[in-house]
Structure formats: C-alpha cells, structure tokens
Design goal:
Blueprint lengths: L2 H23 L20 H5 L7 E6 L8 E6 L7 E7 L12 H6 L3 E6 L8 H17 L7 E11 L1 H12 L5 E5 L16 E6 L11 H7 L6 E6 L12 H14 L20 E6 L4
Parallel strand pairs: 3-4, 3-5, 5-6, 6-7, 7-8
Antiparallel strand pairs: 1-2, 2-4, 8-9
Helix pairs in contact: 4-5
C-alpha cells in the first residue's frame, strides 16, 4: 500500500473510532456524557431534595391484583423528553397496603422515577413472600405495564417498610442485577445475615422503633452487608416504626438521594451523603462506607 493510501486508511479508522467512543459515552438524553450517568432534572440542592415535589409533573395509574402481586398504584413522570427513567417497587409492611404510603409515589416520582407502591396478596404475608411478590411486581412494571416504555430496564431498584423492608433485603440478596435497595424500618425475624448483598443498600431506621428495634433489626442487618457493596444507615431521631407512613423530610431526602446516586448513577447527589452528614436534630445515627 502506498504511504498516502495508508495514511488515508488510518485517518478513516480514527474517525470511526471517535464516533464509536462518542456514542458509548453519551446516553439517550445526552446527559452524563463523560461518566455514564443518567441525569434527570436540574442540579440538586438541599432544598430540592427535601421538597415535597420535585421538578417533574407526574400522573398515576391504579393497578389491579394479578401478575403475582396484589396490585397498587404507579406514579410516573409525564415528561418523555429526557429519555427513560429508573424504576422501583415499594412494598408495604405487615397488615398495611399501598394506601398507607401515599407520599412515596408522588414525592419520589417527581424527582425522576417510575414508582409502583404495591399491595401484597395477603396483608399477613411474611418477608419472604413479600420479596417474591416485590420481584414479580418489578418484572411486570418494567416489562408489561402501560408505562414500561418509559422505564430503563437496566436501572431497577426495590424499597419497602417493616416486613416489606425485610422483603427488600431478601430481594437485594437474591438479585444482584438490581441497582439499589432502600429498606425502611426493616423487620425480619428469620435472619439478621445479609452478607450476600452485592448492591448499594441504604437502611433507614427509627430511633424509637418498638416494633423493629434497631439494635435487633436495622443495625445487625446493616453490619452484615459487605462494605464493598456500598451501604449506609440513617437513623431518624425521635421517630417510631410508623414514620414510614408519613412524609418525613429526612426519610424522603435520603430515599431520593440514594436512588438518584445509584439507580441513575448521578454523582451530583453524592454531596448529601459524603462526607458523612453526622448527627443532628433529625438524625440520631449515620453510618456509611461513603459512596465511591
């Protein structure tokens, strides 16, 4: 090959390589082009992550029982201009239903997520059954629901309260393809060992919880999770077990922040967790491995 032809071929290959690299670095919305982030919404502030409503308008769909779980309510962003969204299923506690957690869907979905607050097949189901139903609900939500086309199936997570939080830990241990887990006041009497969890997990506990005392449930659960998986423990000062049924600002802030950081891989939210925010009038304990 002549020298001129060789140089021309090299130039063509370099141009193709540049196009490929650019395509890999940029997601569908053009956000997070250098890091693989899926940024949705404006730059966050402490006020924005603490607000009762985020930047996205939302709508709701009522889901009937079936497909392995007891139905529930989907809340989703109506905006489709920024691409698909991450999604998660929230599972209720013992004897509770989706109607006890009306704050979760609107508050978190308005920050840029599709959220299904589910019902269980029986209000008396134990954590293992709640985990099974939770994963069935997540599969249905991401693949068969009427909002499935709004969801990025590679960015899925789980959350829940009490026995639903215990089920969330079981789901996190069973499915390493999940991006994050956030159990609230988790209860599980069958095991305190979740050393098999390999996904980022934040446990939110309540200082005055008498149903699932943190020294018997949340803290041993947290301690058992490997540090390499990324983990955090937030303990709400002065709160009891049923704080999860209220729109508690600190609770909502950290649920949103963890989902943003790990479901969206949005490093803009790391500032609210690292360095460790320490204790305050609303946080009695905060432990973490510091997101990395």
């Amino acid at each position: 090959m002549h020298r001129r032809s060789l140089l021309s071929a090299i130039a063509t290959l370099l141009a193709i390589l540049a196009i490929v690299v650019t395509g890999i670095a940029t997601d569908a919305s053009g956000a997070g082009a250098q890091t693989g982030e899926f940024r949705r919404g404006p730059d966050p502030t402490n006020a924005s992550v603490s607000a009762t409503t985020g930047s996205f308008a939302t709508a709701q769909i009522t889901v009937r029982s079936g497909n392995g779980f007891g139905g529930g309510t989907i809340t989703y962003p109506t905006d489709t201009s920024q691409g698909t969204f991450g999604a998660f299923v929230f599972t209720p506690g013992f004897t509770a239903s989706s109607s006890n957690y009306t704050w979760v869907g609107p508050r978190v979905a308005s920050q840029g997520f599709v959220v299904l607050v589910m019902n269980t097949n029986s209000r008396f189901d134990m954590p293992q059954a709640r985990s099974t139903q939770q994963r069935a609900a997540l599969t249905w939500l991401a693949n068969s629901s009427t909002v499935a086309n709004r969801i990025d199936r590679t960015r899925l997570a789980v959350s829940g309260h009490s026995m639903g939080g215990g089920g969330t830990l079981i789901s996190a241990q069973a499915d390493s393809s999940l991006q994050a887990a956030v159990p609230l006041m988790p209860w599980n009497s069958s095991t305190t060992n979740f050393s098999g969890i390999r996904i980022p997990t934040m446990i939110i506990g309540a200082q005055n919880d008498q149903v699932a005392p943190v020294n018997q449930h949340a803290i041993p659960f947290y301690n058992s999770i490997p540090a390499a998986s990324e983990k955090a423990y937030v303990e709400l000062a002065g709160q009891g077990h049923n704080v999860a049924t209220t729109s508690n600002t600190t609770q909502a802030k950290f649920l949103i922040t963890w989902m943003k950081r790990y479901v969206d891989n949005d490093t803009r939210f790391e500032q609210f967790m690292c360095p460790n925010p320490g204790t305050s009038s609303t946080i009695s304990q905060y432990r973490d491995t510091c997101p990395g």
